[in-house]
Amino acid sequence: MAIPLVLLTLTLFIAIFVLVQMDLVDRGLAMLGGAVAFLLLGWMFDFYLIEEAIQAIYFDSLALLFGMSLISNALFRSGIFHSLAFRAVRYSGGNSLLIVTLLILITYSVSLVFNNLSVMVIMLPLTLVLCQSLQMAAAPIVAAELIASNLGGASTLVGDFPNMIIGSVARLHFDDFIGGMMVPCLILLAATLLYFQNRITRLSSAPLDLEVIRTALMALSPNQRAEKNALTVDSYLLRVGSWVFVLTLLGFFLAKPLGIKAAAFSFVAGCVVLALGRVPKQEWFEAISGGDLLFFLGLFVMVGGLQAVGVLELLRNLIDTLGGGHATLSLLVLMWLAGLVTPLFNAGPTTALLIPVAQSMSIQISGDAIWWALSLGVLAGSSASLSGATAGPVVASFMAKHARQLPKAQRSSATVLDFHGYLHWGVPMAFVFLVISSVYIMMIAS
């Protein structure tokens, strides 16, 4: 393919991402616009047809996102997450070390099955209220939670969108991810706990004020009432969400022996929640993560265009050159490349960009190690910067808004987590993740 055309498509791809990352345009509409532009260029220069664009869309991944978003929405609206969070805080008794450990473990556990953004929307307000009540530095705790949400998401098929893409392309099932990703992610979680527990400081010995926390959670919960010991929960939504969730998980485990795609179970589950979950019609688009669905739909078409024009072949050649024809070394190059690119492009787009590269490599490298290398590289990169994580920009803006609402005497760098400040926590952890993951990949690839 002609070099000018390669440069043109690559420049267009990067320009759209710059606009999205700077929050200058709606991310879903921007990606759809980019997809249209790629199709026009493909038609004009005869390198990318609409049939190829449709083939480039990972519909299974979109179905997984659709279903899990609706299940998450139903359980969130039931108020169960807010109630459980309050119970955990009450259990800690004000012990700052135990509180931090519980917050990180809860974030990781919930992120195993719900997307990172939904988890951080729940955990972030609670964390800020806790830190204000106990006069603890909020920034490192929130950074630890963001990394824990990335770890939880990377541990399973449905925890984050990168794994949904990998699962649909590589035809991997729920239990495959449990076997291939859970162990390294738990080791990385232990490293995260050790790293942050030695760096989180408590600024005073103020007692834990449960009434302040209860009041704050009531304002955040969809069910703004409280009983004597906990926040109220909508029992109907809890039953619907819980039963659909449990049956969907069961379907994921049975998908492999039954020869049915996990995406089919997720899509049906989403439709059931739409039918029974009392989702207000004006909230349907948000409940199904409509913005994300449009974003990734456009992204898949654009990545298909990059593949058609030859950009991804250049990446493959780069990995082959650096890997020197050695399978394990090539896996490590892919993982570290993903770790370096993800902070710039975000986890989902990086995965979509590198999937075709990994597919071409999988022809020569047997087993599933190539997919774990890609997932672990994206995990490390998404933990390195706020722009790498899906929830990162939302976390930064929420904390900035929270800091502005505090009295001037209580404002400090410990209450704000901006892009530059997060690097202080994220970059060292990303490096640790890549080193530990490299050992894991060498062990399973040898």
Question: How does this model look, in words?
Answer:
The chain has 446 residues and is mostly helical. The chain has a domain at 80-233 and 310-445. The protein has helices at 3-21, 27-45, 50-55, 59-78, 80-92, 96-111, 116-134, 138-155, 161-170, 174-197, 210-220, 235-258, 262-276, 284-287, 290-309, 311-323, 327-345, 347-362, 369-384, 392-405, 419-445. Helix 5 (80-92) packs antiparallel against helix 6 and helix 7 packs parallel to helix 20. 50% of the residues are buried.
List the helices and strands and how they pair.
Blueprint: H1 3-21, H2 27-45, H3 50-55, H4 59-78, H5 80-92, H6 96-111, H7 116-134, H8 138-155, H9 161-170, H10 174-197, H11 210-220, H12 235-258, H13 262-276, H14 284-287, H15 290-309, H16 311-323, H17 327-345, H18 347-362, H19 369-384, H20 392-405, H21 419-445
Helix pairs in contact: 1-2, 1-15, 2-15, 4-9, 4-12, 4-13, 5-6, 5-7, 5-11, 6-7, 6-8, 7-8, 7-11, 7-20, 8-10, 8-19, 9-18, 10-21, 12-13, 15-18, 16-17, 16-18, 17-18, 17-19, 17-21, 18-19, 19-21
